[in-house]
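Protocol step 4 of 6: structure prediction from sequence.
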Amino acid sequence: MNDAVPEPEQPAAEPAESGPPESPGHEPAAPAPLDVPRTPTGDAGVDARLARLADADHLATDGHVEVYEDVHRGLRDALTALDARPGPAGPPGTPAPPSPSAPYDRRS
């Protein structure tokens, strides 16, 4: 009688990464500017925020989110400020806008 226990078969080693194999000496391309033209809007605050988008041109893709969120936040603040600003005053002697009409509860 033989007391030796057979060893289980070892499964074939799987590759650590499931992506395509990289060729030796191949480096990913460096960030390159997209050279998207920016037309001035006439609002200095908005133009400054849009110019900030150029900062993303020199960052790796994972750095774009921070720039985009910063620009979005600034543009949203600029729009909110426009909503809060009162409109231009009318010429002197201009009647005030009509107030909402009273309900029709007046009965005699």
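Step 5 (inspection) to follow. Residues 44 and 51 are 10 Å apart (CA to CA).
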